[in-house]
Amino acid sequence: MTAYRYVRLGLLAAVKSGGTWHVSPADLDEFRDGGPMSPQHEGGSRRRAPWAERLEARLLAGDARGAWGVVEAALAAGAELEEIYLDVLAPAMAAIGARWERGELDVSMEHRATGIAMRLIGRLGPRFVRRGRTRGAVILGAPAGERHALPVAIVSDLLRQHGWEVSDLGADVPDESFVHAVRNTPDVVAVGLSVTTDEGLVSATGAFAALRAATSHVALVVGGRAVTSQEAGLALGADRVVLDARRFADLLESVRAEQDVLLGSAGH
């Protein structure tokens, strides 16, 4: 059972076949000798433990229960919710996506891993909800042709933790649907677009143009792996660019403050 627990937590590499987990002699030797996935390398610090690598292994194995076990172990070791998303889950999925792009994985494995990742977010999401009065509403989504919904879901929860009311529109959102959401959501402070592909960059330009034509009081924000600099993001038509998800909440605070000043000036 100890070996089984090591496998399910991603500490010991294994392959499942016919309902049985198989561990190669080489992986067992590496584990025994204190390899990077071994418990000896945790050193009592959540920052040294390779949680992202362990989660990646469970996701690639299609092991939903083991993936949740890795998340629980990281939380028990002291990791914060934001760290689980940005330092464990996001890097694990980025590594899997990179391996698919290099042709090392079939797309079925990438899709299966994404499905498990979304279920993990579903279990963790309620923990991000913050009680009390909201700071305002934010609409998030990926533009038409952009099919990666996971980054949107991650950022949505991170903003909810900071007290924002978030409308997560998911992936592949038409321009007119962004506009419709803005017109039918009270107290909208910003619309954020997540872009991870070159196709998404083109679509984001159209979405921002449609939003700018429909509203003048809402900040337009862009971020994502395909947005490599402030200049590149502004060139798409955005007002603000987020290159680090950890800074999004701070950016929204500054936007809200600026909007309050403008409203106050208009009132006088």
Summarize the model shown.
The chain is α/β, with parallel strands linked by helices and 268 residues long. The chain contains eleven helices and seven strands.
Query: How many helical elements?
Result: 11
Q: What sequence of helices (H) and strands (E) makes up the elements? A: HEEHHHHHEHEHEHEHEH
Rg measurement, Å = 21 Å
Beta-strand portion reads 5-15%
Report the major sheet. Answer: 5 strands, parallel
Report, as a whole number of angstroms, the end-to-end distance: 71 Å
Residue stretches low in confidence (pLDDT < 50, at least 5 long) are 43-47
Blueprint of the fold:
Elements: H1 2-8, E1 15-17, E2 20-22, H2 25-32, H3 51-60, H4 64-76, H5 81-101, H6 107-124, E3 137-141, H7 150-161, E4 165-168, H8 175-183, E5 188-194, H9 198-214, E6 219-223, H10 230-235, E7 240-242, H11 248-267
Parallel strand pairs: 3-4, 3-5, 5-6, 6-7
Antiparallel strand pairs: 1-2
Question: Could you characterize the architecture of this molecule?
Answer:
The protein is of the alpha/beta class and about 270 residues long. The chain is about 55% helix and about 10% strand. It contains eleven helices and seven strands. It has helices spanning about 1-10, 25-30, 50-60, 65-75, 80-100, 105-125, 150-160, 175-185, 200-215, 230-235, 250-265, and strands at about 15, 20, 135-140, 165-170, 190-195, 220-225, 240. The strands form two sheets. The chain has a five-stranded parallel β-sheet with strand order 4-3-5-6-7, with helices on both faces. It has a two-stranded antiparallel sheet with strand order 1-2. α4 crosses α6 and α5 runs antiparallel to α6. It is elongated. Residues about 45 have low confidence and may be disordered.
